[in-house]
Amino acid sequence: MSKEGPVIELRDVWKIYQMGEVTVEAVRGISLKVNHGEFLSVMGPSGSGKSTCMHMIGCLDLPTRGTILLEGKDISHMSESELAQVRGRTIGFIFQQFNLIPTLTALENVMLPMAFQGIPLNERRSKAFSLLNLVGLSDRMYHRPKELSGGQQQRVAIARSLTNDPRVILADEPTGNVDSTTGKSIMDYLSKLNKEEKKTIVMVTHDPELAKYASRVVNIYDGKIKQKGD
Ligand SMILES: Nc1ncnc2c1ncn2[C@@H]1O[C@H](COP(=O)(O)OP(=O)(O)O)[C@@H](O)[C@H]1O
Ligand SMILES: [Mg+2]
Known about the structure:
The protein is built from seven helices and ten strands. By secondary structure, the protein is an alpha/beta fold. It has a six-stranded mixed β-sheet, with helices on both faces. It is globular and about 50 Å long. It binds adenosine-5'-diphosphate and magnesium ion.
């Protein structure tokens, strides 16, 4: 891994969706650099292109135009399988909707991504135990999602996002479905990961109070970064 240069760089990135006759310019020329160890908060109204940006940075989707570099590597033209490899090595994703599997316990949900990487069962189990410990859920290992509060479910999702020891964590409105007290505790975990584990974090939020946890805030309007004075 190179420590030189930004960990994430977007150069004039566009995402244009063609829906039959209708063209949607979701992202319209975003350029952005995120350095190692930064905690960046992305704010902006609904529909302004935040999730689209996160999906492209997270190797879940490709830009229509422009260049995205992850740790200096151009991911803008990669195939599905190349993207999956980079994603698996580099990125941990936390979603607003938690995206846990309802029939699996907390422990099994955290173990699952490691199964795809061929990690042996014992190792999967012990890593999942220690990650659930880290997020304060050692007493909820065998609960299924519906037996957990929203905040606890999001902490399971945070633990799951850490299984591949990602250098970058992308969190898309991670506190959107929890109350404000729980939201603050989730932010405390993200802060801890940033400060103690040196994870680079990009987080989308609506809440200016939560944006304060970040070391830098970027505002997106209408698919573009709003500069001071715009
Ligand atoms: N898969 C898609 N197909 C077509 N249009 C989309 C798709 N995803 C998002 N959009 C549109 O792109 C714009 C930006 O969406 P999004 O990135 O989800 O915004 P935000 O996360 O800021 O609320 C919206 O107008 C949305 O309707
Ligand atoms: Mg969104």
